[in-house]
Amino acid sequence: MTDPAPTEIESGNAPDAETTPDNDKASAPILRIRYRIRFSKTDLLRWISHRDLARLWERLLRRAQLELSMTEGFHPKPRVGFPSALALGVESLDEVVEIDLAEELSAQALFERLEADQQPGLNIKSVTRLPEGMSKAQLDTSDYTISIVPGLTAEQIDTAIKKLLEQETVSVERKKKTLTVNVSEQITQLELDGNVVRLRLAASQAASLRPGDVLDLLGFGDWVELGTLIRRVSVELKQEPNGCDSDLVAVSPTWETRMNSHMSHEEEKA
């Protein structure tokens, strides 16, 4: 009786298990590419919490069918981070979110996928692919406008601003704790400009002032109830990529037109 013909494995012709395509894919290093996205949060979207905004972004990224880089552990989550959070009701024309992807995408391709979602109140301003090793976004300064409300003269507002800026330190209540800050270090601009108050706040490693805190310190804490619109108009980060290749940055060609139209509409309503 003759022996059966040797199988592929027995004959030594089987592919090495370590070099099969599936195993190659499993052993390949997992990509983790970070992108910085600037966007607006306007209209009804300004009335959602920061936590809900984070959830909205996770859903948006999944609808865009992106391969997300996930955290480790028992409950992996997409790597999505924000350098700062807005208070409820504050509008923003310049928010920042950073995401990590596990796939190669040009900035333009990512921009187009995000833009196609057409989430009401969320417009994509720009997408930047960040260089490897760059630290996560850290807030440096935020610029705001606060619309004035009827009942006060320009002189009264200017007097309140001058009085606040003359103080060395101020204290505000935050979560049943008293926060004391240096005025000149955190409030780097505060002035009346036409029908808005312009405010620039510097970030601090400790707790930082918020626009609502500044209104309280000015004695205008009732402005929110009276319908003032607090709007973050720009955000500066501590570190920005230098000399990015054009392939690594995508910018909306219609951003300024859309934002100017939005602001004109809000002024007409006011």
Describe the structure concisely:
Helices cover 26% and strands 28% of the residues.
Helix content: 25-40%
Described by the principal axes of the CA atoms, the overall outline is globular
> SS-based structural class?
alpha+beta
What is the CATH architecture assignment of the largest domain?
2-Layer Sandwich
Radius of gyration: 26 Å
Structurally, the number of domains stands at 2
Number of discrete helical segments: 7
Arithmetic mean of pLDDT: 88
CATH topology of the largest domain: Alpha-Beta Plaits
Q: In this structure, how is the largest beta sheet organized?
A: 9 strands, mixed
Structural features, described:
This protein has helices at residues 21-27, 50-63, 107-115, 154-165, 183-186, 211-218, 255-269; strands at residues 33-41, 80-81, 91-101, 122-129, 139-147, 169-174, 177-182, 187-193, 196-202, 230-237, 249-251. It has 2 domains: 33-137 and 239-269, Pseudouridine synthase I, catalytic domain, N-terminal subdomain (Alpha-Beta Plaits), CATH 3.30.70.580; 140-234, Alpha-Beta Plaits (2-Layer Sandwich). With 270 residues, the chain is of the alpha+beta class. Helices cover 26% and strands 28% of the residues. The radius of gyration is 26 Å and the shape is globular. The longest helix has 15 residues, at 255-269. Strands 1, 2, 3, 4, 5, 8, 9, 10 and 11 form a 9-stranded mixed β-sheet that branches. It has a two-stranded antiparallel sheet with strand order 6-7. The protein is built from 7 helices and 11 strands. A hairpin with a 2-residue loop joins strand 6 and strand 7 (177-182).
